[in-house]
Amino acid sequence: MSELVLLLLRIGFLILLWFFVFGVVYSLRADLFGVRVRKMSAEAAAAASPAPQAPRPSAGTGSGGAGKGATRLVITSGPKTGLEVPLGAEPMSIGRSSESGLVIRDDYTSSHHARLSRRGDTWLIQDLGSTNGTFLGGERLSEKPVQVHIGTPIKVGATTFELRS
User: Fold this and answer.
1) Which residue(s) pair with 126 in the sheet?
2) Least enclosed by CB within 10 Å: which of 17, 66, 109, 160?
3) Using one digit for the tens of pLDDT, what is the confidence trace for 31-69?
4) What is the pLDDT of residue 18?
């Protein structure tokens, strides 16, 4: 083999090695700091998200309300059991990231795991493509927003919470 071919092979191997190193660093950075999430305008969010699915029966309180009177989120099991978070008009992100409205630090929660948002008088929960999934009343959610009823358990990682009035 000529010296020129050997030199080109060495340079090619070095370039591939650097691509691998940059890929590992990018992956670690994304896992540690999360992926930047853009906020959508109200019009774009309404156009992008489909209509909520059919209402599900309430599992806990028997109130049968569709989340109309929900004013707080209460953690019922997990490391932060008993914590109550007041709900406002703004969407609340749920995940391991410090930027989240509800920070859940466990190995089964993604950096940006789910989003709880309000549309009119109803509350919707949406899985944000998490690895381990978001469960509403024991059913795994897709990435479409689903209506949440008061008292229906929502499970993210090892934490379970519900909306209450």
Assistant:
1) 115
2) 17
3) 777 656 555 555 555 554 444 444 444 444 444 444 457
4) 96
DSSP symbol at 78: S
Instruction: Tell me how far apart the alpha carbons of residues 115 and 134 are, in angstroms, rounded to a whole number.
Output: 10
Task: Tell me the residue type at 66.
Answer: A
Alpha helices in the chain (DSSP H): 3-33, 42-48
CA dist 8 and 61 (Å) reads 71
Give the three-state DSSP class for 125.
strand
Enter the tokens of residue 14.
Answer: 């070095």
Phi-psi region of 138 (alpha: psi -120 to 50; beta: other; left: phi over 0): left
DSSP-assigned letter for residue 100: S
Q: ∠ at Cα 103 (100, 105), nearest 5°? A: 135
3-state secondary structure of 25: helix
